[in-house]
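Entry 14. Structure prediction run on the chain below.
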Amino acid sequence: MNGISVLQEALSAPAEEARNRFAGRLNGYLEGSDVVHAVRLQGWLGLEVPGPGCHVGTGSWDFTRFKPTTSPVSCGRCRSAGLLTSSFTGGPHQQTLDLEGI
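Output returned:
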């Protein structure tokens, strides 16, 4: 077993716990910040963990700093990308078309 496989094996349970924390939750925030992000699963060392949909840097490799919340998305980068709700599908997100005022 190579070093990466051993690391992936050691981190698979914490990664699963992180995914479970976001089950049924809408969005997330980084510990110490009040900015709320849409959540997307992201690849990390061969595992999938929840992270900010806008891919903003977390300032750490510690994915447990990303916490679930039911608060609405307030991140400007997420909102400008049309990420108004969270999804673990990781597929392309359809932006909404604002027809108000037409």
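Residues 31 and 63 are 10 Å apart (CA to CA).
Filed with the rest of this week's runs.
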